[in-house]
Amino acid sequence: MLARVTTFAIDGLESRRVSVEVDIRAGLPAFRVVGLADAAVREARERVRAAVLNSGFEFPQRRITANLAPAYLRKVGPGFDLALAIGVLAASGQLDAERLAGWAVFGELSLGGELRPGRGTLAVAEGVRRCGLEALVVPVESAAEAALVDEVCVAPAATLRAAAEILDGKRAPEPVPDAGEEATPPLAELDGDLAEVSGQAEAMAAMEIAAAGGHNLLMEGPPGVGKTMLARRLPGILPALTREEALEVTRVYSVAGLHRGGGLVSRRPFRSPHHTISPSGLVGGGARPAPGEASLAHHGVLFLDELSEFPRSSLEALRQPLEDGASTIVRGQQARVFPTRFMLVAATNPCPCGHAGDRRRCRCTEADVARYRRRLSGALLDRFDLLCSLQRPPAPRVAAGEPPRSDRVRARVTAARERQARRFAGTGIACNGQMDSRRVRELARLTPDAEGALHAAYEREALSARGMQRVARVARTVADLAASDAVHRDHVATALALRQDRLGLAIAA
Ligand SMILES: Nc1ncnc2c1ncn2[C@@H]1O[C@H](COP(=O)(O)OP(=O)(O)OP(=O)(O)O)[C@@H](O)[C@H]1O
Ligand SMILES: [Mg+2]
Ligand SMILES: [Zn+2]
User: Fold this and answer.
1) Could you read off the pLDDT of 218-253 as tens digits, one per residue?
2) Ligand 1: residue whose CA is nearest its atom 29
3) How does pLDDT run across 302-338, given as a tens digit for each residue?
4) Any idea what the Cα angle at residue 123 is, between residues 121 and 127, rounded to 5°?
5) DSSP class of 480
6) 9, 246, 399, 495 - which has most CB atoms within 10 Å?
7) Which secondary-structure segment (H or E) carries 47?
C-alpha cells in the first residue's frame, strides 16, 4: 500500500515542499529511503523504527521503501523523521491515509517517540500557506513560531502517537502555547543603558548619529575606555523592529538553529564575532549553506571588536554583503541568498600597544604604528561614514551634566528615522547611510551655504570625492535629528568633525 505525506525541506532561508511516499510490500524486512537523502536522513530510519515501536504501534516486518520527491532537491538533516513515521503508519493501515491530504507535518523524533522542534519552522509554515495547504502538525515547542503565519491552522503535538491521532481525527490538537512576551522589556534593560557610561560625550553623539542614519561607525581608542561598552548599547538606541523586520530576523535565527519554536524575535540582534572566525562563518556558507554572522546581525548590529586583528580575507568577504545587503552563496547550480542589512560597528586601538599619543606609555615605533594602520586602511575602512576617537573618560564624579539615557536617545533616533522613511518612500532605501552618490545629490538638500562649507573643506583638507559624499550623508542625518528639511552649514560642520581622516587612519578613497 502506498501513502503520501507532505513535509518541507529547508533550502537557504526558504522551504521547499517535499512529498514522502511510503510503499510497503511483501518481501524480506527492509527499510530503504531513496531520493537524494543525505546520511542524516538515512539515519532517520533507526529513529523512526524506534519511535514507532515505542509509541505502541507496529513496525511492519516487510519491505518498506520511502521516496522523497522531488528527487533533484537535496534533503539534509533530521527534519524528515515525523513525515517518514507518519508515512509508515499510513502505509501499514495504522492510520487513515485518505485523511492526510491538505496536511503537512514537520518535526524530529526521539527514540521514545517524542516530537522535537526542527530548524526553520517559520519558513515551513510559510511554505504551508504558499502551497495552499490547510494545516500543519508540529511539535508543541514549535507551535508558537508556526502560528506566526496567519491562515495556517497549527496543530501542536507532543508525541508521534498524538500526531497520528490528530491526523486520524481521533484527538484534538493541543492548544498553541502563548509565545510569551519574549523581549518586551526595552532593550536597554537587557544590554545596559547609555547612562552607565561616563564621559565619552562625543562618542555618544557619534553613536546617536550612526543609529539615526544607519551609518557604519568606527571607534578608536586605548584599552578600557568603553568602546565595547558603548557598542553593546547601540541596539538599545535603535528603533523597535517592525513586524516585517522581526519576521525576517526570526526566519534567519530559526534556520540557523538559534531560535527553535519561540514567538517572534523582537530584539535587534547584536553579533560580536571573534577575529578568528572564518570568512564563511562571517558571511555564510558550508556544505549545507547556513547563514553567517552578517545575516545573524540582519536588522541589528555587527560589531567587529579589535578590527585590526581580523584577517584581510574576512574583511574582503564582508564587502559584498555590506554593499548589497545580502550574501549570495552558490553551491553547484543553486544560489541561496541570505539577507545582511546590518550596521557595522568596529573598534580598534590606535597602535599595537593601544596607547599611541600617550608618550609615557606607548613604546611603539613609528614603523610599528604605520604597519598597524596599514592593516586597517585597506578593504573596509572605506565603509565607515563615522569615526570617533575615544580618550580616557573623566572620573565619574567630575563628569558634567546629566548623562544621556538610552530611551531618550532612542526616541530622537526613531523620529529621525521616520523623517527618512517619508523622504525615501518608494526608493527602496530606508536610511541616509544607504544613499549612493546619485541619491545624495538628489535627496540630501544642502543649502548653498552648506554646499559652500563642504567645498571649502574639500579644498582645505584635500577631502576625496568619496569623503565629501560621506560628509554629506552624515550631515543629512544630523539635519534629520534636528528635524530640519534642509542641511545647513552647521550640520555639515558637525559631520566634518566626525570624519575619518581626522584619525590619521589614512584612507585611499
Ligand atoms: N566610559 C566608561 N564609563 C564607565 N565604565 C567604563 C568606561 N570605560 C570603561 N569602563 C569600564 O571598563 C570596562 C572595560 O571597558 P570596555 O571593554 O568597554 O573597554 P574597551 O575600550 O573596549 O577596551 P579594549 O580596547 O581593551 O577592548 C567596562 O566593562 C566598564 O566596566
Ligand atoms: Mg573592547
Ligand atoms: Zn603603542
Assistant:
1) 998 888 888 999 999 999 999 989 899 999 999 999
2) 229
3) 999 989 888 888 888 998 898 889 999 888 777 889 9
4) 110
5) H
6) 495
7) helix 39-54
Residue 321: CB partners within 8 Å, gap ≥ 6? Answer: 283, 294, 327, 340
- Looking at ligand 1, which atom is closest to the CA of residue 390? 21
> Tell me, what's the pLDDT at 509?
30
Measuring from each residue's beta carbon to the nearest atom of ligand 1, which residues come in under 6 Å? 197-200, 221, 223-229, 347, 349, 393
Minimum CA distance residue for ligand 1 atom 18 = 226
Nearest ligand, measured from the Cα of 399: 1
The model's pTM = 0.89
* Minimum-distance ligand 1 atom for the alpha carbon of 199: 1
The pLDDT, as a whole number, for residue 188 is: 43
How many C-beta neighbours within 10 Å does residue 327 have?
26
The kind and range of the H/E element at 230 are helix 227-232
Q: Which ligand is nearest to the CA of 355?
A: 3
Mean pLDDT of the 422-438 span:
89
Sign of CA dihedral 407, 472, 430, 340: negative
Residue 508 pLDDT > 50: no
Residue 36: exposure state from Cβ atoms within 10 A (0-12, 13-18, ≥19):
middle
Beta bridge partners of 10: 15
What's the Cα-to-Cα distance from 419 to each of 44, 431, 479, rounded to whole Å? 53, 9, 10
Contact indicator for 229, 192 with CB cutoff of 8 Å: yes
